[in-house]
Amino acid sequence: MSNHNADIDAFSNTYDWLTDAVRGLDVSALTWKPGPGKWSATEVLVHLADHLIVVSFRIREILSGSRVRLPAFSQDPWVEGQYGNEAEVSDVLEGFRSLVAYNARLLHRLSPADWEKEAINAKGDRVTLADVVRGFAAHAKHHLGQIDRIKAAEAAASGPETSATAREGA
């Protein structure tokens, strides 16, 4: 058991944060986009699932002692290429939940020294495993704000009677 329980808790809580952010939204609200080139709430979830896949790989590369630069990914083409806005939110969240839980179990097994193992990220900066785990939770929080902005913009565009907020009963 490591002394990084707060990092693991934040990492694990990302699933609950995302579930809470979209609870009560219907398909129309989940797939609504604030404008051309902007993501829907569903696409934000797809992006975060993609990011979690990449973070899972990065964690394992760091733990393996690999000297290969950690991968980046092209978020917009990934979301677009897999028709992210057509994804079932329940499927995206279930996959996300499973991968978070699997990684959390790994993280609980690590020693304090494992958390300090380093690699070079795609930008050329040195990062520790702790940085990667904390960074993912911070990234998810950033996108929670994006989902909130999408919901607010959808509510404003739809009017008070038909907005997602009204459908949620808020």
Automatic annotation (TrEMBL):
DinB-like domain residues: 11-147
Top-level taxon of origin: Bacteria
InterPro entries: DinB-like (IPR024775), DinB/YfiT-like (IPR034660)
Protein known as: DinB family protein
Native source organism of the sequence: Cohnella ginsengisoli
Upper taxonomic lineage: Bacteria, Bacillati, Bacillota, Bacilli, Bacillales
